[in-house]
TrEMBL record:
Domain of life, per lineage: Bacteria
Function as written in the Swiss-Prot or TrEMBL entry: Catalyzes the attachment of valine to tRNA(Val). As ValRS can inadvertently accommodate and process structurally similar amino acids such as threonine, to avoid such errors, it has a 'posttransfer' editing activity that hydrolyzes mischarged Thr-tRNA(Val) in a tRNA-dependent manner.
Protein name as it appears in the record: Valine--tRNA ligase
Residue ranges annotated for the Aminoacyl-tRNA synthetase class Ia domain, each copy included: 25-431, 442-563
NCBIfam families: PRK05729.1 (NF004349), valS (TIGR00422)
Domain Valyl-tRNA synthetase tRNA-binding arm: 807-871
Pfam families reported in the protein's UniProt record: Anticodon_1, tRNA-synt_1, Val_tRNA-synt_C
UniProt free text on domains: ValRS has two distinct active sites: one for aminoacylation and one for editing. The misactivated threonine is translocated from the active site to the editing site.
Record-level GO cellular component terms: cytosol
Methionyl/Valyl/Leucyl/Isoleucyl-tRNA synthetase anticodon-binding domain location: 608-752
Species annotation: Virgisporangium aliadipatigenens
Keyword Membrane attributed: no
Gene name of this polypeptide: valS_1
Length: 873
RNA sequence: GGGCGCGUAGCUCAGUGGGAGAGCACUCGCCUUACAAGCGAGGGGUCGCAGGUUCGAAACCUGCCGCGCCCA
């Protein structure tokens, strides 16, 4: 095992070096088993199943975002005392994986058919063992606190059993059927695709208008796919279209083919589009197929599985894209082209795996009848069993599940779950369940496999052991949250909902669906290889650390919204981690400790009570944002608390106490500092696990891993508004003096003699030493002579001896600006208060607040005016 | 064409009825011994446009303009 020596035993270097600690810590966590979830535990469950990445995939920035959110949620719940399960795994990615192995074979001049089905599948398993699942190692780099003992794969034995089980149930319930339908066909992958595996884009094409028939019995149709006219079996018009009423029921000659086809009336034709007449190719267009069904038209397939035309002499053997211009040329030669429009931009479907233009194709496929399943999936969200976050996105979910088409689940591949249906010698069809013997002699199994998403849809329960009644299933189902991108909502999520509700007797697969957006670049542009703006998360992890990478993503993770990132911002996150590192280093050098109880409020200084009050406020706010999946806000609050409150103010205010003569006071502040840092590190741990573990190990010797440390409890009793107000006053004095010094061009380090008046009246008399420390002011000595005065409000005045002439022009400019601001404020407040409608109708607290603002602004004006007058004199 | 969403500082984004904010970028001054991966100070916005509701609108309503996403 690697070196797990606590950092306390070493020196903290001046800079945080993530590369030196991340691997050691991660291996330590896994070895200690802190990520393991125990179904026998009596702690309340909290479970997340990971959206399974492809076995062919590697970690991209989108995964990094998705995982950062999940890990943050899981790590917090684990610290809160839940039995937290984050279950990892991969899917078998039927088409993608088969493509990878087929490419390997092609390199040696082979095809899968040379090997045969059994040997090919064996080869795919071999590929998986050797080079599949790269992403799992990369997830360790990111710090994912998944339970590795539970890693699952959609093709493993248990999950395959789940697939067979649910297939059989659906089949027996009549929810799976086989039919000849128009499906999306990829002519390169040689398989059917479901609707969601087709991506539409607006492409340049052509719109060609063709005249069918002759003379007053002719009719003009327009098409973007001229070659399909070879398969036309009708022309359709709207029944109410007066232009064509006389033609309905007649035959028209289809050019080039010598065939005559009927003109039919169908209400689905849009009479306003084009000529109002459409060609009907039932075998090559889904809408045309439906028209064909309604009018009992024949379906004529004109292409083979590779997109090659199979009919009509001169075109036979041409690819569909070669046939298109050839058909147009032939029609033009016959004088049948009425109009041509190029380019004509229209939506074209592409295979989401290989980008090839999808060909609608009539073929015999297996389908899931989705109507009843989708209804249940919608109802589970409608009645609140599952909550979608952010709620606005539920509308999209409903739009999808309430209009879902039947799902084509058969794929003409070898890699995947083979459809458990056997065909008998007399045409019998039998679905074989997981524990049944296949039928014997003379029967053959369906050649196709199931869509990968069919097995992914079972993920939330198949991974927990279903169909067996396992302790894990009992403990962790329904899972608590599903975290994924909104782009996945309408297919994968909807399908898990359908199958989960069906398999688990109406119990939803997850209580909450927390959606995030896509990672974009710093200008809000989509990342794309061609644009060259793709970020590799592993590159960032190496250069800035896993924590910085995670923090950058988490800080942009507003629910449902896209997440812009940039290298500069990741540097900023790295800097933040380094800031934590150095704050802890300072604390350790100065003896900060978490040992012993915190002194009571009565014993503590105002400043100590202030930072504890801020901590209480921050803890409560962080909890609230976590509950709402507002990770960006969690990060924002902690960033500012750590940097502004703790580092910029508390540490600076603690310095004079820690090095001062009052040993008891120093001891109390050491405890407060240790306590605050410890809580801060624990609050940050879910987002930045590595640096917080390393630092807390140093800060809390023998305290065990932060992974299993308790989540900081909200402590409303620590809120102290009086202390907060007092420190705000102190900060105002310090800031005003610093501003004066900067205006006067005094170097920050230069100490200046000064007399401070009016602290008592402002309730700040206890803080004179701190103010002098932070504003770098010395006590006035012999021969003190004030050369400049800063009136900071609240009656406090600081007279400084700058040992030289002050920059009157700079000071006048500053004061003039302040005077203008005060005058503007006064005018705005007076306008409101002089308006009787306001004073009568606005709530009393609002009116009171405006009066206070007016009084403060008037005091400011008086102060500034007096200083200006003094300057002039 | 239908649906959803967005438009706030140079960039990216918070802010959903009562003093316009953050990060980064920018300007000035600093190696002030935890941190230059830093410290201090500062500049910068007709809140897309036009109406309306209201004592009061960046926020609510209507219309328009521009952009994005999903579906057809």
């Amino acid at each position: 095992m690697s070196d797990t020596t606590p950092t306390a035993a070493r020196e903290l270097s001046a800079q945080y070096q993530p590369a030196e600690v991340e691997q050691r810590l991660y291996e330590g966590w896994v070895a200690a088993g802190v990520f393991a979830a125990d179904p026998a535990s009596d702690k309340p469950p909290f479970a997340i199943v990971i959206p399974p990445p492809n076995v062919t995939g590697s970690l991209h920035i989108g995964h990094a975002l998705d995982h950062t959110i999940q890990d943050s949620l899981i790590r917090r719940r684990r610290m809160q005392g839940y039995e937290a399960l984050w279950l990892p795994g991969m899917d078998h990615a039927g088409i993608a994986t088969q493509n990878v192995v087929e490419r390997q074979l092609a390199a040696s001049g082979q095809s899968r058919h040379d090997l045969g089905r059994e040997e090919f599948v064996e080869r795919v398993w071999q590929w998986k063992a050797e080079s599949g699942g790269k992403i799992l190692g990369q997830m360790r780099r990111l710090g994912d606190s998944v339970d590795w003992d539970r890693e699952r794969f959609t093709m493993d034995e248990g999950l395959s059993r789940a697939v067979l089980t649910i297939f059989k149930r659906l089949f027996d319930d009549g929810l799976i059927y086989r039919a000849e339908r128009i499906i999306n066909w990829c002519v390169r992958c040689h398989t059917a695709l479901s609707d969601i595996e087709v991506e539409h884009s607006d492409d340049d094409g052509e719109l060609v208008s063709i005249r069918y028939g002759e003379g007053d019995r002719s009719i003009v149709v327009a098409t973007t796919r001229a070659e399909t006219m070879l398969g036309d079996t009708a022309v359709a018009v709207h029944p109410d279209d007066e232009r064509y009423k006389h033609l309905v029921g007649t035959l028209v000659e289809l050019p080039l083919t010598g065939r005559s086809i009927p003109i039919v009336a169908d209400p689905h034709v849009d009479p306003a589009f084009g000529t109002g007449a459409v060609k009907v190719t039932p075998a090559h267009d889904p809408n045309d197929f439906e028209i064909g069904q309604r009018h009992s038209l024949p379906s004529l397939t004109i292409m083979d599985e590779t997109g090659i035309i199979t009919v009509h002499g001169p075109f036979e053997g041409l690819d569909r894209f070669e046939a298109r211009p050839a058909v147009v040329a032939a029609l033009r030669a016959e004088g049948r082209i009425v109009a041509e429009k190029r380019p004509y931009v229209h939506a074209v479907g592409h295979c989401s795996r290989c980008g090839t233009t999808v060909e609608p194709r009539l073929s015999l496929q297996w389908f899931v009848k989705t109507a009843p399943l989708a209804r249940a999936a919608g109802d589970a969200v409608r009645d609140g069993r599952t909550r979608i976050e952010p709620p606005e996105l539920a509308k999209r979910y409903f739009a999808w599940v309430d209009n879902m088409h039947d799902w084509c689940i058969s794929r003409q591949l070898w890699w995947g779950h083979r459809i458990p249906v056997w065909y008998g010698p007399a045409g019998e069809v039998r679905c074989v369940g997981p524990d049944e013997e296949p039928p014997g002699e003379g029967w053959t199994q369906d050649n196709d496999v199931l869509d990968t998403w069919f097995s992914s849809a079972l993920w939330p329960f198949s991974t927990l052991g279903w169909p067996a009644d396992t302790p894990s299933l009992a403990k962790f189902y329904p899972t608590s949250v599903l975290v994924t991108g909104y782009d996945i909502l309408f297919f994968w999520v909807a399908r898990m909902m359908m199958f989960g509700l069906y398999a688990m007797e109406g119990r939803q697969p997850f209580d909450v669906v927390a959606l995030h957006g896509m990672v974009r670049d710093q200008y809000g542009k989509k990342m794309s290889k061609s644009f060259g703006n793709v970020v590799d998360p592993l590159d960032w992890i190496e250069r800035f650390g896993a924590d910085a990478t995670r923090f950058t993503l988490a800080r942009g993770a507003n629910p449902g919204a896209d997440v812009p990132v940039s290298e500069e911002w990741c540097q900023g996150s790295r800097n933040f981690c380094n800031k934590l590192w150095n704050a802890t280093r300072f604390a350790l050098i100065n003896g900060a400790t978490v040992e012993g109880d915190l002194p009571s409020a009565a014993e503590l200084s105002t400043v100590d009570r202030w930072i504890l009050s801020r901590l209480a406020d921050v803890t409560e706010t962080v909890d609230r944002h976590f509950e709402a999946f507002e990770l960006a806000k969690v990060c924002d609050v902690l960033y500012h608390f750590a940097w502004d409150d703790v580092c910029d103010w508390y540490v600076e205010l603690a310095k004079p106490v820690l090095t001062g003569e009052d040993a008891a006071a120093a001891g109390r502040t050491r405890r407060v500092l240790g306590h605050v840092l410890d809580a801060l590190l624990r609050l940050l741990h879910p987002v930045v696990p590595f640096v917080t573990e390393e630092l807390r190990t140093a800060l809390v010797p023998g305290g065990g891993s932060i992974v299993t440390a308790a989540w900081p409890a909200a402590s409303p009793e620590a809120r102290d508004t009086a202390a907060e107000a007092e420190v705000a006053g102190l900060q105002r004095v310090v800031t005003e003096v610093r501003r004066f010094r900067a205006d006067q061009g005094l170097r920050p380090g230069q100490r200046v003699a000064a007399r401070i008046d009016g602290l008592e009246g402002a309730g700040l008399s206890a803080h004179s030493v701190l103010i002098r420390s932070l504003a770098r002011l010395d006590e006035p000595g012999d021969g003190f002579a004030a050369t400049g005065t800063v009136a900071v409000g609240g009656g406090v005045e600081v007279a400084l001896d700058t040992r030289g002439s002050i920059d009157v022009a700079a000071e006048r400019a500053r004061l003039t600006k302040d005077r203008a601001a005060a005058e503007k404020e006064i005018a705005q407040c007076r306008a409101k208060l002089d308006n009787p409608a306001f004073t009568e109708k606005a709530p009393a607290p609002v009116v009171g607040k405006i009066k206070e603002r007016l009084a403060a602004a008037e005091a400011d004006l008086a102060r500034v005016s007096a200083q200006l007058a003094a300057l002039a004199g």
